[in-house]
Design brief:
Oligomer: heterodimer
Number of helices of chain A: 8
Order of helices and strands of chain A: EEHHHHHHHH
Structural class of chain B: alpha+beta
Helix content of chain A: 55-70%
Strand content of chain B: 25-35%
Largest sheet of chain B: 8 strands, antiparallel
Strand order of the largest sheet of chain B: 21-20-23-24-27-26-25-22
Distance between the termini of chain B: 58 Å
Helix content of chain B: 25-40%
Strand content of chain A: under 5%
Strand order of the largest sheet of chain A: 1-2
Radius of gyration of chain B: 29 Å
Structural class of chain A: mainly alpha
Number of strands of chain A: 2
Shape of chain B: globular
C-alpha cells in the first residue's frame, strides 16, 4: 500500500492514480518495470502488447497533460513518464529483458564493465584460438599479403564464433521458456544462474564478432 | 485570457502561429507576409529594427546589422572562430565563454539578439489579436521550435531568448516533429514517417511511428551547420572569384580596394534571388549592381551548373538519413510517408534526392516555410487545453555522459531515448573526509571527452565526511520533455541530499537571464519611443504629400477662385512649410501638433475636392448610361 499525497487515501503499490481522488501518484521507490507496465515477470513479451501498454500509459502520464497541475502532480507526471520510457526501452529487446530480470533477481554482476571484459570459462578455448589466428592474420596483412587472402582467413576464423552465437541464442531461448513456464523455486534459481552465464557469454561473443567486423572493414 | 502561440525561430526567417477553433493558422502582417526575417539592425540613434526593415538595412548599413544568429546559439567563442569572418558584424567573447555579437555600440549574446526577433513576433501576434477585437490581446506564453539535433546548450539558449523576450516558454520542441504534428491534423496517418528538414542553417532528419494519434520519434539525427546559408556561400564564392578580376570588380570596391560589407550583402541578395529563380526555371541571371555601383555585373546561371555546385551539400544530407534509418532499424522502403520541411526543400535537386532515397514522392502540401510554426501552435494548444487527441513523444538526439578516469566518457542516457528520460550513476570519494565531487557532463557519441560537447560542470557538495571510497552518491540525470538536462544527487548511506551547482559551459546563468530581461524592458521603452517617432514622421509626410498634390492639381486655381476663402491657400502653405521644418526633429509631440494643424487647415479644401470628384464621377456615369 501507498498513501496518496493529495487525499491521504490508501492505494495499491502498482496503482498509477489514486483510486479515491484520481490524482497521479508519485513513483514509489521500489518500482519494477514489469509490474509498472502491468506485465508478468516473464521473458517472452508480445511486442504488440508492450507497444500498446506504452502508448496507453504515455497518454495517461505525459507532462503535456499536467502543465497546469500543482507542482507535486507535475513532478509525479515527469517521474512516471521517465520511468515508463526507461521501462519500454529496456524491455523492448529480448537481451534487455534478460539483463533486467537478472538485476531484479539479484544476479546482475557487481561491476558490469569488468564482467564483460573477463573471458567466460566456457569460451576460453575458442578465444585462445581466435586470438592466435588474429595475430597471424595481422602479421600477414602487415607483410603486404593481398586483401582477399587475409579477408578470407578472417572470414573462416569468424565461423566457429558465429556458430557459438547461434547455439547461445537457442540456449537462451530455451532457458527463457523454462523461466516463463514457472518451475519450482529450486529450479528457478538454477535457471537464473544458467541464464546469467549464457548471457555473459553471449555478450562476450558479440564483442568478439564486432572486433572481427572491425578488422574486416579496415583497409590494408 | 492572454494568448499562447507557436513560434518557429528560424536561421533566416521566423514565424508565429496560433490555433483558431482547432485549426492552426500563421499570423501575417497587413500585407499578408508571414515571414519575419531573423535580422536585427540598430540605427544611428539607437533604434532597433527587426525583420524586413532590418533586412533592408543590410544593403545600407551592414556593419550595424545581424543575421543568422541561430548559428551562434549556445556556442562558445572558439566554436565560431572559423566562420565569424563570413559575417559583417563583429563576433567576440571571452575564451571559454558565451559568444558576443556587436550591434551598434553594444555587444549582445545570441539569446538577446534572438529575443529581439521573438519580441517582434510577440508584438505582431498582439497587434493581430487586438485587431480581432480581443479584449485581452497579450501574448505571454509560447512553444518555440529548435532543430532536432540541437544540444542542451542550444536548447537552453533558445529558452533563455524566450524569457528575455518576456515569454513563458511552455515547451521547446523539435522542428521536424512539429512539422509532423501539423501534417497529422489533416489525415490520421498510421505508419512510418520520415521528416526531411533542410532550413536556412540546419538540417534534421527524423523517423516517426504514428499510431492512435501518438507521434513517436524512433530516431533523429542531423547537422546543425548545414542549410541554405551554405548554398548561398557557395554561390557567393563563385561570384566573388569572378569579380576579383580588376575590370569586373572595380565598381564594387571601396577606396582601399576591398569590397564594402554593403557590396557583399548585395551579392548575397542577388545569389539568393538566383537560387530562388532556379526552383522553377532552368536558367536565370545573377544580377548585381544598380545605379549606386555603376556598371552592373550580370552572369547567367543554369540549373545544371547550380545542381553541380550544390551536389556536395545535397549529398551531406543523405548520410544522416541513412543513419536515422539504421538507428530505427528500418529500410528506406519501409517508410510510408516522407514530409519535406524548410525553404531549401523547394530546390528540385533536393526533392529528387529525397525521392530517390526513400523511393517515394515526398509530401509538400503544406508550405515548407510555415509547417513548423503550425505544428508549434498545435503543441501549444495541447499544453494549454489538455487536448489528448495527439501526443508527441520525442527523443534526445545525443547521448549524455560523464567524464571518467583518463578522459573517457561513460554514457548514461543513450541517444534516441524517448524523453523525458532518466539515468543515474554512482560516485564516491577519492580521499578521506572529502565532501565535494566535481562532475563533468558531456553530450555526444564519441569515446573521448575532448571529442564531445561539454555541457556543464556539476559541483556536488555536502557529502557527509567519511573514509575515502565509502560514500555512495547517486546522481540522477533527468532530461525533460524539452530535451533539457537537470540533475539531483543523494548519498545512499546517509540519505543526505546533495546540492548541485551547475556551471553551464556555454550558457547564461539564471541571474544573467534575469538581468537581460530587465535590460530588455528598458530597451523596450526606448524602442517604443523610436517607433512612435518614425510613425509620426511617416504620418506627417503623407499629409504633406496629399496637400501638395491638391495644391498642384490642374483644377486648383479654379477651386481657389470659386470655393476657398481669402487667404486660405496662404495659410495652408505656411503650415506645410512649418511642418517641414519640424519634421526631422526628434520631438514627436511637435511633429504631431503641426500635422494636426495641417489636417485641420486642409479639411475644407479636402471636402471641396471630394465633392467635385463625386460630381465628376456621377456625371461620367450619366453619360455612360445614356
Amino acid at each position: 500500500m501507498q498513501a496518496c499525497p493529495s487525499c491521504g487515501a490508501g492505494a495499491p503499490l502498482d496503482a498509477h492514480f489514486c483510486p479515491q481522488c484520481t490524482k497521479i501518484l508519485p513513483l514509489p521507490r521500489r518500482a519494477d518495470y514489469f509490474s509498472f507496465l502491468g506485465l508478468p515477470r516473464k521473458l517472452n513479451v508480445e511486442s504488440s502488447v508492450l507497444e500498446e501498454r506504452f502508448r496507453t500509459l504515455s497518454r495517461q502520464f505525459h507532462p503535456d497533460y499536467f502543465y497546469n497541475a500543482p507542482p507535486a502532480e507535475r513532478r509525479a507526471s515527469l517521474e512516471r513518464s521517465s520511468y515508463l520510457n526507461d521501462a519500454y526501452r529496456t524491455l523492448k529487446q529480448p537481451a534487455g529483458r534478460i539483463e533486467y530480470l537478472l538485476k531484479l533477481e539479484g544476479l546482475a554482476p557487481d561491476n558490469p564493465a569488468e564482467a564483460s571484459r573477463k573471458v567466460p570459462p566456457a569460451l576460453l578455448e575458442e578465444v585462445f584460438a581466435l586470438n592466435e589466428e588474429l595475430d597471424e592474420i595481422r602479421e600477414e596483412r602487415a607483410g603486404g599479403a593481398p586483401a582477399e587472402a587475409w579477408r578470407a582467413r578472417l572470414e573462416r576464423a569468424r565461423q566457429p564464433i558465429e556458430a557459438k552465437r547461434v547455439q547461445h541464442e537457442a540456449q537462451l531461448q530455451e532457458l527463457a521458456a523454462r523461466w516463463d513456464a514457472g518451475e519450482s523455486d529450486g529450479d528457478r534459481r538454477a535457471i537464473l544462474e544458467a541464464l546469467r552465464d549464457r548471457f555473459l557469454e553471449r555478450n562476450y561473443i558479440a564483442n568478439l564478432l564486432a572486433g572481427i567486423e572491425r578488422e574486416l572493414s579496415t583497409s590494408p | 485570457m492572454s494568448h499562447v502561440v507557436g513560434i518557429d525561430l528560424g536561421t533566416t526567417n521566423s514565424l508565429v502561429a496560433y490555433v483558431n477553433d482547432g485549426v492552426p493558422v500563421v499570423i501575417r502582417d497587413a500585407s499578408g507576409d508571414a515571414l519575419v526575417p531573423s535580422v536585427v539592425s540598430v540605427g544611428d540613434a539607437g533604434a532597433i529594427h527587426v525583420g524586413r526593415e532590418a533586412q533592408q538595412r543590410l544593403l545600407t548599413d551592414a556593419r550595424r546589422t545581424v543575421y543568422s544568429v541561430k548559428r551562434f546559439m549556445g556556442k562558445g567563442r572558439e566554436d565560431v572562430a572559423h566562420e565569424a569572418e563570413h559575417f559583417p558584424f563583429s563576433v567576440s567573447g571571452e575564451t571559454g565563454g558565451v559568444v558576443r555579437i556587436g550591434l551598434g555600440d553594444k555587444a549582445f549574446t545570441p539569446p538577446e539578439i534572438s529575443a529581439f526577433v521573438l519580441r517582434e513576433l510577440k508584438q505582431r501576434a498582439e497587434a493581430f489579436f487586438a485587431e480581432q477585437g480581443e479584449f485581452d490581446n497579450e501574448v505571454d506564453r509560447a512553444v518555440i521550435t529548435v532543430p532536432a539535433y540541437f544540444n542542451d546548450a542550444q536548447r537552453t539558449a533558445t529558452r533563455d531568448a524566450g524569457r528575455i523576450a518576456g515569454l513563458e516558454v511552455l515547451r521547446i520542441i523539435n522542428e521536424p516533429t512539429a512539422a509532423s504534428l501539423a501534417y497529422g491534423l489533416d489525415k490520421r496517418h498510421t505508419g512510418l514517417i520520415a521528416v526531411y528538414d533542410l532550413g536556412g542553417g540546419t538540417f534534421d532528419i527524423s523517423i516517426l511511428k504514428v499510431e492512435d494519434g501518438v507521434f513517436q520519434v524512433l530516431s533523429t539525427t542531423g547537422d546543425t551547420h548545414l542549410g541554405g546559408d551554405d548554398i548561398d556561400v557557395l554561390l557567393m564564392d563563385t561570384v566573388l572569384n569572378e569579380i576579383s578580376s580588376d575590370t569586373v570588380g572595380r565598381p564594387f570596391r571601396a577606396a582601399d580596394g576591398g569590397l564594402t560589407p554593403e557590396a557583399v550583402q548585395e551579392i548575397r541578395k542577388a545569389v539568393i534571388q538566383a537560387k530562388w529563380d532556379l526552383s522553377d526555371r532552368e536558367e536565370t541571371d545573377i544580377v548585381i549592381g544598380g545605379a549606386s555601383q555603376g556598371a552592373p555585373y550580370k552572369r547567367p546561371l543554369t540549373r545544371v551548373e547550380f545542381e553541380r555546385l550544390i551536389a556536395p551539400i545535397v549529398e551531406r544530407t543523405l548520410g544522416p538519413c541513412r543513419q536515422a534509418l539504421a538507428d530505427a532499424a528500418l529500410q528506406a522502403s519501409q517508410i510510408d510517408e516522407v514530409v519535406l520541411v524548410g525553404g531549401s526543400t523547394r530546390i528540385p535537386r533536393v526533392r529528387q534526392a529525397v525521392a530517390e532515397l526513400f523511393g517515394k514522392t515526398p509530401h509538400s502540401e503544406l508550405n515548407p516555410d510555415e509547417v513548423v510554426a503550425l505544428g508549434a501552435a498545435v503543441q501549444a494548444d495541447i499544453l494549454v487545453t489538455g487536448n489528448r487527441d495527439m501526443l508527441l513523444l520525442d527523443v534526445t538526439p545525443l547521448s549524455l555522459g560523464i567524464e571518467t578516469m583518463g578522459g573517457v566518457v561513460s554514457k548514461i542516457i543513450m541517444r534516441n531515448s524517448t524523453i523525458p528520460a532518466t539515468g543515474s550513476e554512482m560516485f564516491t570519494t577519492g580521499v578521506d573526509n572529502q565532501t565535494a565531487v566535481d562532475i563533468h557532463v558531456l553530450q555526444g557519441e564519441r569515446e573521448l571527452v575532448d571529442d564531445n560537447r561539454s555541457l556543464a560542470r556539476f559541483n556536488l557538495r555536502g557529502i557527509p565526511p567519511m573514509p575515502a571510497g565509502l560514500p555512495r552518491v547517486q546522481v540522477q540525470f533527468q532530461i525533460d520533455a524539452n530535451g533539457i538536462l537537470s540533475a539531483t544527487a543523494r548519498e545512499l548511506r546517509t540519505e543526505v541530499e546533495q546540492t548541485i551547482e551547475v556551471k553551464p559551459s556555454y550558457g547564461l546563468t539564471d541571474d544573467e537571464v534575469e538581468r537581460m530581461l530587465l535590460e530588455s524592458f528598458e530597451h523596450a521603452e526606448s524602442d517604443i519611443a523610436a517607433r512612435l517617432l518614425i510613425e509620426a514622421r511617416n504620418e506627417a509626410d503623407s499629409v504633406i504629400q496629399a496637400t501638395e498634390k491638391s495644391l498642384h492639381s490642374p483644377d486648383f486655381p479654379e477651386i481657389e477662385k470659386t470655393e476657398l476663402a481669402a487667404g486660405e491657400r496662404q495659410r495652408i502653405e505656411s503650415i506645410v512649410a512649418g511642418l517641414k521644418m519640424v519634421l526631422n526633429s526628434s520631438d514627436r509631440e511637435t511633429i504631431q501638433k503641426w500635422t494636426q494643424a495641417l489636417n485641420d487647415a486642409t479639411r475644407h479644401l479636402a471636402e471641396v475636392m471630394m465633392n467635385r470628384s463625386v460630381k465628376a464621377a456621377l456625371a461620367g456615369k450619366n453619360i455612360d448610361s445614356m
